[in-house]
Amino acid sequence: MRILAAGDHFVRPSLIREAVSQELSRTGRELPEFAELTLPWPHEPFGPVAEVREASGTEDQLLGALAGVSVCVTQMAPFTERVFAASPALRFVAVSRGGPVNVDLAAATRHGVRVSFAPGRNAPAAAEFAVGLTLAAMRRITAADAELKRGVWRGDLYAYEESGGELGGATVGLVGYGAIGRIVARVMRAFGAQVLVADPYADRAAAEADGVELVELDALLSRSSVVSLHARLTEETHHLIDSRRLRLLPHGAVLVNSARGGLLDHAPLPELLRDGALGALALDVYDIEPIPADWALHDVPNVITTPHLAGATRQTAHRAAAITASEVGRFLRGEEPAHLANRDVLAAGRP
What we know:
Strand order of the largest sheet: 10-9-8-11-12-13-14
Structural class: alpha/beta
Oligomer: single chain
CATH topology of the largest domain: Rossmann fold
Shape: elongated
Helix content: 25-40%
CATH class of the largest domain: Alpha Beta
Distance between the termini: 14 Å
CATH architecture of the largest domain: 3-Layer(aba) Sandwich
Mean pLDDT: 96
Number of helices: 12
Largest sheet: 7 strands, parallel
């Protein structure tokens, strides 16, 4: 048995190797032979590789490391049709992220390779970051910091018309109610906010038990002074918050997106911010990443930007490695992975 730890500079190969070794030691299994590959992300942006998106490195790099490998644990490696076709020994790929977008699942199934992923690995980190962005936007924390560092004391921000609002007593709308959204809801309610949720897949009874109100998206936007996006990006949710829906927001509302850039139509945002219809915007994700030098929002007021950092904690990296190591343990024991992404592969009958 040979396992490839195809890590990067966040989920390091050493973290993967250590997590898998601990998992297998607990079950008394003999430790396998490990191979390691370090991909360039995040020092180099991820992007499309052949038919997969959000991958790091090249097919040739991966193929050079996959010789004789049965199991691969990775975050970003590009598992394409070409890679699967050239890797006959491969049986299992454990992806240490919330969705296996760097894997051609149809190709994996055709070649009899099971693929798992790691849902919730960054939920605490991403939820905390979303709350941080919300507070920074509402209270102009980053703008005041930047001005003070330039030597400008912005006492005018204490003026009534310039001062921000509070979460206590506010209506906060969450678009998406998965693992991240549920943590954000708990924190917002602890501040004293009323929380609305729009998610067609959310369980109404569970939402009510959490103390949130499940509503349609248009109603959420019309009622919320703060809106935070936490949905997955699919064909169904692309530009879910479009020009029409942006104009449903109450005047001066705060909008936060730390989920996926494609959820939000960016074209109307400069105008809405300049005329005050949108009071503040906080973004960690973008329609184009990295954002270009001539990005339309660079010189627009009341915009907070961070470079896709919501999940960037050391705890996330360790959780990612631990979740995938558990999946490797299940696979080697002949069990079905807990988070199998291509269930059709089970019908193929390949061990």
